Records
---
Amino acid sequence: MTDIAVTTQRGIVQGTCDDRFKGVLEAFVENFQSQDEVGASVAITLEGRTLVDLWGGQKTVGGEPWARDTIGVVYSCTKGASALCAHMAVDRGLLDLDAPVTRYWPAFGQAGKDGALVSMMLDHSVGLPSVRTPLKAGAFYDYDYMVEVLAKEAPFWKPGTRNGYHGITSAWTVGEMVHRSTAKRMGLFLRDEVTGPLGVDFWMGLPEEHEARVAPMIPAPVDAVARNSRMAQAMRADPTGPTAMFMGSMGGFSANSRAAHAAEIGSANGISNGRGLAGLYAPLANGGSLNGVRLVGPDTLTRMGLVSVATHEDATLAIPTRFSLGFMKSMDNRALENTASCSAILSEAAFGHVGAGGSIGFADPACKMSFGYSMNRMGQGILLNPRGQALVDAAYRALGYRSNASGVWTL
């Protein structure tokens, strides 16, 4: 391992990097030099060993440096942690993916949702990508309130007949599957069963004593490309459709508020960094166990990586998507119009989740790699922007992968 200290226009990039992953270091530095990165971290484990652990830039524009223990909101990367909790419940025999949701949550069977299966809560096909019900101020910070709202809500489509990204609502659809099957709310389950035993810095409900470590998120500006994206077009075409309702119903969520950090929103408010994301996925890259901590067995791990739904037009995101049960799979939309930063190209074996603005965490069991990247200046698009994809590409090249022309990285 080589100790790193490289000066960039945003400050010093620090950490350690195995010589094999020199290309990742170069891409990380280049992001600060030419891609307007402000503050960021990236980490990679291989066969359970951390071979890349880099951080750098600024916690705020022109402010204090991004430190080794700086953390930030990783948005939908949180969904990967939530899905992991659900699969652990399945692995322990507490939750049945093929069972009706009403076995665990009887009230959910209202308004045409009685045929919903547990698996549909995980693969974005249950029909609740948003809610039509007007929400109170601060709704997303009130877990019990949102559970009651979703139980009563009519679906946008018959559960299981199509899929549309449940960008916020999966906090409570998946969350209640974990809560009702394990008798623990998901934030507590995650802390007790995953992050605590692994020693991973990933929070779903951040204790106040860690607040000073949080880097505020810098929103991406809305430019002409964003205004002409497929999501923007879908919102204009149908103001009452899933896309518009999802984007327009944030329940007062403000990512830089203490209330958002303290809440348990299992789809959107996880707080971590590159090291935490890579650490979360490291056991899943190594058979489901690491350093004496067992998360899932081989059958469950296999299921976690299998494509469950794929579509040419996601009902919410308005782009082609591919999901396993709770995780994103490699998605290649590079050849389509109005899809800038709407791809996330991994290997076919990999599974994980991106977060708004371009953060990502994933496991690749085929090469026993886990990967995490977080930043504070959000990029445009739905999936990875050039900063994150450059790091992923460099990681696969370091392992001898040849090409991603097929839509996945191949040897």
---
Amino acid sequence: MRPSKFSEGQIVESLRQVRAGAPAVDVCRKLGITQTTFYRWRKKYDAAAVNEKREVRTLREENHKLKEMVANLLLGKLP
């Protein structure tokens, strides 16, 4: 699958425009995409989902670091 020519931020911004009241057809025409692509984006990049994904990723990284610290302490390794 080829990479999108639109960044995640651009996609989220177009979704916000439609949520604010702009017709989806006009936004699609302006971006040069099909309505199918737009609705696929909406399904994948819903603003709440994007924020949740970032938060989950951050929490997973923090959890990994904490587990590593605990393992090192249990093994007697001090940083």
